[in-house]
Amino acid sequence: MLNLSGKNALVTGIANSRSIAWGIAQQLHAAGANIGITYLPDEKGKMERKVEELVAPLNPSIYLPLNVQDDAQIDRTFAEVGEKWGRVDILIHCLAFANKEDLSGDFSKTSRAGFAQALDISTYSLNRLAGAAKPLMTQGGSIITLTYLGGVKVIPNYNVMGIAKAGLEMSVRYLAAEFGSQNVRVNGISAGPIRTLASSAVGGILDMIHHVEEVAPLRRTVTQTEVGNTAAFLASDLASGITGQIIYVDAGYETVGM
Length: 258
Prior knowledge:
The protein is α/β, with parallel strands linked by helices. It has helices at 20-30, 46-55, 71-85, 112-133, 160-179, 205-215, 224-235, and strands spanning 8-11, 34-39, 62-65, 90-93, 141-147, 184-191, 246-249. Homotetramer.
């Protein structure tokens, strides 16, 4: 029943094979979606080559650089997407960053520059990309972002990223209200802790994973594939009545009090 054939899906945020974005891209492809990939460019082109090799089995029809702190590049990327595809049906936002020193220690000592950068990349980028995609989402569609429990609860060594995720989750609701009139749904997936390149910056990530495995109702953490399955569902017509929601994919951990 889950069929994304004929849908154009643009996926951001793949860094390596552990990326949640990679799990999502694989499941969208398995459901029949036409995949487009963006990567974070660097001076030596290392990330371009690395991600290109990884995503080759998905046969992406679009492969473009995207630095969300560069408005001109965002505009160029979506102009090329428009020329190539004509429309976007699915936008996957898997982007977050904070300086490591702003994730630990006293939250009150977060630097002004670090605070601004974390919210720019991790929160505002959803708003900016959604706005750029909006004219191309002419046949309805789905926008999906990734969040974490640290946006609603205090998590050790998360600090400024918790503020960024809180803003991201509220952005989901405001964007859902704005985009609903053109039948575009906006939702977030709050995934349990998974060992990724991004999560490796969070101190004690392995302890967090082990804790979830001990106390979550399913007595385990989740996988990139499970998050990808949920994203594919939210992108499909099976989720046609769901928007403005944060869906927890965390083996039930969010429900546990102690």
